Structure formats: structure tokens, C-alpha cells
Amino acid sequence: MITSKHLIVSDADTASVLTSLRSGELSGGGPLVREYEAALADWFGCSHAIACSSGTAAIYIALAAIGVCQGDEVIVPPTAPAMTALPVLALGATVRFADIRPAGFGLDPADVERTMTARTKAVIEVPMWGYADNIEELRELCSGSRIELLEDASQAHGSMAGRRLAGTGVAIGAFSTHARKLLATGEGGFLLTDAAEHARPAQRLRGLGQSDGGGEAFGDQFGLNFKLPGILAAMGLTQLARLGQRVRDRNAVADRWLAALGDLPDVEIVPRPRVHNCYGLAITVPARLRGRIDDALADCGVLTDTKAYSYRPLNEAPLFATRQRCKNALALIDGLIVLPCHEGVTGSVIDKSVSAMAGCG
């Protein structure tokens, strides 16, 4: 079954991991991790990169670093996955939902403003499937309200809206490097920030209370062990070197999908950012056809994310269920199908899939 994710382990990855094993640099405090962080900061053009154990840990650290705690509120879009919101609950804060813009995944600044209260501490933008959005208006709103803007860019490595790479241009950007990501270390994550006042507490929270070069003794400051092992940092270095090529390869697959879809009735393409990493290609169909098309694609061996994860608005999930109505998110998700764009999706698979979709109308 072809899913929307595909882990590629190269000879370079294997060699890097073996070198790490032979060197004995396996802990999260070794030089390989520092080298990996420096490479991440350089690739994304940020002052600070902080490697950690998972994308969920990255979000937790980001929220804690800006002071989110019990009684605070954090605004997220209903299109976000549960992994974005679970760290909010872990910190004792409350998840609030604001709607997205029509026909996209970016938060609607007007609805964010309506959702804000005196307890709002942070807003998290989430470019699902790599659909980075222009955040200028949202950034101005948060700045004027003295609320921190974060971005969970776990699915958006290499995507760019305007001149901004996803995960940059915000207080803190959080990423996952799970096996299914374009930059994959099996498990892992990292944070990006240009602000030293965010980097230091994030490092302490990641490293049992110690910041990089800070000289703190254990017990001086609070922190947990969210460090990334050196062996995974070694793999991250070689994966990072291929990230640009992986984005190009996935765009080639997306182009084949778009050419095959052509004028297929009832299919609309969700507007894409300036540079799309093609974590998945989002299309919409009439809501009455979504389940039928998902099933037809599965019969062709293509398991879409919308079917695999029973995708629905997060504010309808039992753990987060609220009475907040987010009509744009609901309208998008009701007809959303996300097509896989990884390197294993061939032209013949695409042609067969589009033929099956055509028979569902």
C-alpha cells in the first residue's frame, strides 16, 4: 500500500551512523549534536537551532520557553493534528480554536482576534502538508497584542511562503524529524529561533536544566531530558544535505498528479505556497464524493492521509471538543483528499488512481 510518507535511507546515512557508532559520540550532549544544530541554523537562516527528541517535545519546549503554564490559553487551527495541541494540555493550559482562511490552512487573523482573551499566551500556526502561509498580518496582530506567535512546521521542511521558510519569522518554529518527514532521523525534532531570550530557556528545558555554555549545575534550573542522541544527529546531517533535492523530487511527483488530474470534474487544487515541499498534495472534492474517492484510491493501492488518519477537525475530537464553530475549516476538511507525493509514487500509479477517481462522479 502506498501512503503519503516514505523514508529514504541512503548509503551516506548508513556511513554517518556507523561513523558515529565507532566514535562513541552517542549522547545528546556530544559534538555531533552541536554540529547538526549549526547545520540546521545555517540551512534555515536562523540564529539558534535546538535539537530535541521529537516534534511533540519541540512544541512542549517552545511553549514552556515562552512561559505558557496553567490557566493560559493557546490558539491553534482546527486543521492541526492532535500532536500540536497535546503539549498545551501537558502544561496545564487550555486549547482554543480559531478558524482558517477560506481554501487554505493558514489561520484567519480576524478570527484569531475574535478568539483572543486576556488569558491568551500564544498562537500556533500549522502549515499542514507543507502549505506554508503568509503570516504578516497574523504576526502584526500577535505583536500588537503581546502574544507570542509560534509555528508547528513539522510537515513543512523546505516550504516557503513569500521569502519566508516555514518555521522561521516567528518567535519559535518547531519541527519533527520522525521517520515519515522529509528530514528524517527515525524519531526526533528541533526548534528554530532568532531570539536568545527564547533559545536559552529552550536549551535548559531540553537539557535537564543546563543551557549550552551556560554553566548551570544540575538543580540550578528546571529541565527534562528531551535531548536528541548523537547517532540520530549523525543521520540528520546527511538527511539535511538532501533536503533540497527531496523537495524537488516531490514536486516532480506533484506535477505528474496535476497533469493527470487535468480537467477532472469536481476536483479543485488547494492553493499552494511559493515553494511547496509536497509533503502531500491537497485537493478538494464535493463532500458527498470524498469517502467514495478515498476508498477507490485505496483499492488502487494509494492510502491517502485523509483516510489513513480519519482526518477531521481537531475541535471535534473528544479530548478537545468545543462548541466553537470554524466554518472554513469544516468546509475544507469535508471535501479534503491529500495525495501522496513521495518518490515511490510512479506515473502508472497516478494514471490508475486518476482513472479510478473519474469513475466516482
Describe this structure in words.
This protein has 361 residues and is of the alpha/beta class. It is 40% helix and 13% strand. It has helices spanning 11-23, 31-44, 55-65, 82-90, 109-115, 136-145, 196-206, 230-241, 243-261, 287-299, 305-308, 327-334, 347-358, and strands spanning 48-52, 73-76, 94-97, 120-125, 148-152, 160-161, 164-165, 172-176, 189-193, 268-269, 281-284, 336-339. The protein has a 7-stranded mixed β-sheet. Strands 10-11-12 form a 3-stranded antiparallel β-sheet. α2 packs parallel to α8 (230-241). The protein is globular and about 65 Å long. The model has no long low-confidence stretch (mean pLDDT 94).
State the separation between the terminal residues, measured CA to CA.
24 Å
Strand order of the largest sheet: 1-9-8-5-4-2-3
Q: State the major sheet.
A: 7 strands, mixed
**Average pLDDT rating:** 94
Q: What Rg do the Cα atoms give?
A: 20 Å
N-to-C SSE string, H for helix and E for strand: HHEHEHEHEHEEEEEHHHEEHHHEH
Secondary-structure-derived class: alpha/beta
How does the overall form come out from the CA principal axes? globular
Q: Flag low-confidence runs.
A: none
Helix content: 25-40%
Q: Report the sheet-strand fraction.
A: 5-15%
Can you count the helices? 13
Explain the layout of strands and helices.
Elements: H1 11-23, H2 31-44, E1 48-52, H3 55-65, E2 73-76, H4 82-90, E3 94-97, H5 109-115, E4 120-125, H6 136-145, E5 148-152, E6 160-161, E7 164-165, E8 172-176, E9 189-193, H7 196-206, H8 230-241, H9 243-261, E10 268-269, E11 281-284, H10 287-299, H11 305-308, H12 327-334, E12 336-339, H13 347-358
Parallel strand pairs: 2-3, 2-4, 4-5, 5-8
Antiparallel strand pairs: 1-9, 6-7, 8-9, 10-11, 11-12
Helix pairs in contact: 1-8, 2-8, 3-4, 3-7, 9-13
